[in-house]
Amino acid sequence: MSSEVLARREAVRSDRRARYERMVEIRALEDKVRGLFAEGLVHGTTHTCQGQEAVAVGVAAALRPSDAVCCTYRGHGHAMALGLTPLQVCGEIMGRTVGSIGGVGGSMHLCDMSVGLLPTFAIVGAGVPVAAGAALTAQVRGTDDVAVALFGDGAANIGAFHEGINLAAIWNLPAVFICENNQYGEYSPIATTTPIANIADRAGGYGIPGEVVDGQDADLVFAAVESAAARARSGDGPSLLEMKTYRYAGHSRSDTAPYRPEGEFEEWYQRDPINSFGARLVAEGLLTEGDIDEIAVSTAARVDAAVEECAAAAAPGVASMFENVLV
Amino acid sequence: MARMRMNQAIAAAIADEMRANPDVVVFGEDVAVAEGPFKTSAGLLAEFGPLRVRDTPIAEMGFMGAAVGAAATGLRPVTEIMFVEFLGVALDQLVTEAAKFNYLSGGTVTVPMVMRASVGAGLGFGCQHSQVMESWMVGSPGLKIVMVSGPHNAYGLTRAAIRDDNPVAVLEPRALYATRGEVTVGVEGIIPLGRAARPASGDDITLVCGGSTVRTCLAASGDADGWTADVIDLQTLQPWDAETVLNSVRRTGRLATVEECPYSGGWGADIVSTVVAEAFGDLQAPPIRLTAPDVHVPFGKELEQRYLPSAEYVATQVGELLATGEAPAHWWERDGALV
What is the Cα–Cα distance from A235 to B178, expressed in whole angstroms? Predict the structure, then answer.
């Protein structure tokens, strides 16, 4: 499994066509997952990331597998961009032994240390100081790895955000803090919870660089993260990047997002990260229209097969409940 | 063997582990330059330097989270929560992140971090700086909890906690930092987690204690008239050493837990329930719990001492239990107690 995961990661790192394909794969699985929950085939809840795929692949492309990533519960896309397979992700969502941690975690809890993905965080903001700590390891050991925290706009108002970034700043840690501003903290529009337009402006309060990035453009995300990571690797300290993006679905499984103003989704969809990146690759001659169609069909088939394999896979047995509690 | 104060024993334990393993790092509020408000990190910055020994902002959530991240990626951080009450703002990182990472990684991530905290009453710090707060952590699977009771086991248990691959909370009674005692230093002084000690042995009752109440029990049993006690210092509260406790109770036939925490929700309730279930037939009297009352820790010196279970109180309660075979009333329930 680990070699496949690393190969998938390497593809995203080295090949923009692979980034496009991965975005298509993420969208396909997320759509499928919402369907599974809607049909009642999966227990619990889920948080999908349709509309935010460019952030996921741009970040994963810019980082190394040895870099540490602290990601949120809206993490299926990030996990797949980092290299996890649809089987690992869907298996975890469906609670099957083929899941990334054997099916004991569920939708919010993915992990694969072979590509640096720490256990994903289901507590808003909790990953921010943890990323500072992972960056401390790199600093103490003298490696040039970086640690990245991915968090939503809602997390910018919890204490862990402030404490984690402040600590990274005073210790000059090799960390990159990436806010995925998808415009809503759970059900609340950002303007009702946050008194400034750009969360990146808060970087000034910590004396570190802050940058607003178009999170719908995988190339721009990649460039911004690569630059911030290079700065961190060279000992110049942490940065705060704000990816402006949009959550196509509601907060979680049960949320149909009735609070969203009319026309808002349509406006964002005009700049859909997958459509626009595909068009760019076609314009550049890296893909043809035929490739676009073929990728859509073959990816859907691959994701469907993974979902079927998960459905047929075993659920973890009772003994799993008693494993990995204490080392 | 070396004679030292408990705070010196803690600093010595950390220093010995830092010498043995370059992955051990120390951070917390004023632990580096000032060497800790209780001087539990004396000498560490001078010997190990600012890369490994760091002062943090007054931001427990932040530095506890950093400890989780550092531990999950290869270091062995030792953090200090100056007063255990400050853990309130950082509890998520300890019980919801650190304690669950091994499980939520399919066993691939360990979090070998130590959270040291000063605990307990007796120094006149008022009710927000005098609690013990084990109850915030007991019942959190994936977390070990240690209670030190003096220089000797403070050294040995701290070293074991740093070596442990699980997150470990080490609770240090503040009132004991200046206490002197003989300490077995070096690797032979390391005390395994999960095992109780028996600082005194006797036949009539088992006194189960931990942290500050060990001295209380030793004083009570040492001066006892007509009875002797098996004093069991749990040392590790989670997981606690049921075998040692049960073997003792099977022999003495009686049990009292002596706890600094308030009565409701105290750890002794777990001990009692296990003993009743496992050794019911061996009991000659109802198990009793000697605790603080369900109130805030009072500030005034006399009231604060009244709040804490004293050696005299232990002697009185045990004497009544032995004489009557029935559980005596708590002091605060007795006629005239609140006048």
Answer: 42
